[in-house]
Predict the 3D structure of the following.
Amino acid sequence: MKANPGGIVSPSDVIGRDRLIAQLWAILKQQGLVLVAERRMGKTAIIRKMEAEPIAGWRAIYLDVEGVSRAAEFIERLALAIRTHLSASNKATQWLRDFWSALGGFEVASILKLPEARQPHWKTVLERLLGELARNADQRLVLIWDEFPWMLQKIARAEGASAVVDLLDVLRGLRQTHANPRLVFTGSIGLHHVVAGLQDQDYVHSPLNDLRTIEVPPLAPPDAVQLADALLRGEGLAAAADVAERIAEQVEGVPYYIHHVVATLADLGRPVTMRTVDAVVARSLTEPQDSWNLEHYRNRLGPYYGESASLARTLLDVLAETEDLDLDALHEQLRIKARPDNDRVRRIVEGDREELRKLIKLMQRDHYLEQDERGAYRFRFALIRRWWRIDLGLG
Ligand SMILES: Nc1ncnc2c1ncn2[C@@H]1O[C@H](COP(=O)(O)OP(=O)(O)O)[C@@H](O)[C@H]1O
Ligand SMILES: [Mg+2]
């Protein structure tokens, strides 16, 4: 297997996800899913493999909705994905053709378009499209929408929060009336950010509480080693057995970084040793062009936490310096180190423990932090802590 960081991996090259995928199919027999993880953890690799290798009696239809910013466009893309799937499996597509033309929809250059007149409303079209699909499907279907929260944010920006509320309501209504198709949402931005934005606008529903949320973890150590080993071989890099182990361990089993390290080793071309692995990882954490996109962890604090962003940053600074602090110890450190730049931060620092707890919960959901059995907090990924320490000049 060739190193291909960030590229599309063929389903047979997706390593270490068989058990998770089996678990996902088992859940889908009961309910829909939200698949969450830090970016680059391998969500897309997993769902593409599910599409390519469905279990008996089921079919998954994958749609990347990252680029979509309007509800009507989403429906057009969805209809096209459904049609492509139906024709690939030789099912009659007549119902879809009839349905689409009855709406006044048309086709240009193989793209399905809704009528410009916005009649009927896209909500009606979506309800009917999925209803028709449920009626006409002769097998269990899973509709997988990759980067769904990102699309919702774009729709909110382009068409207002009410369009997102409508969309989520239609989809929830559909889940309540039809067990087929099942829905799977994936994305690197937590849906909680999108829903919190809606709740700021008095949206009181929990539009997702009937879905199971599953987190995609890094690869388990033996699988991470297997991936590193397969990539080293694929690149023709002779190395001692412990080199693959070293790569896996240095990047905590994150598949994207494993690909990246091996790709860089292949560029260097010299004999690969533990030392060259360490040097490549150390270099990746400090290189100015930031090919691992680590700056992202810092840059998104603003959009994620708004007024609390500066406090979140200080909190990470504190935990970069001293790991495993419980809430009280953390609060104490913040009292010493935080430079409040607004009232909210001042309130938290001066005593509002509950607000601090909420912020920390959010930071856990966003994969910055984790809590151990004794209640102490630490970085979720040691690699990110290491990068944060370098950035603070702590070495
Ligand atoms: N299970 C896996 N086996 C091999 N390589 C993987 C695996 N999962 C992810 N990758 C690698 O990591 C990269 C990022 O994975 P991707 O599925 O795009 O992550 P996400 O969708 O979570 O952002 C892929 O391009 C591929 O190089
Ligand atoms: Mg992805």
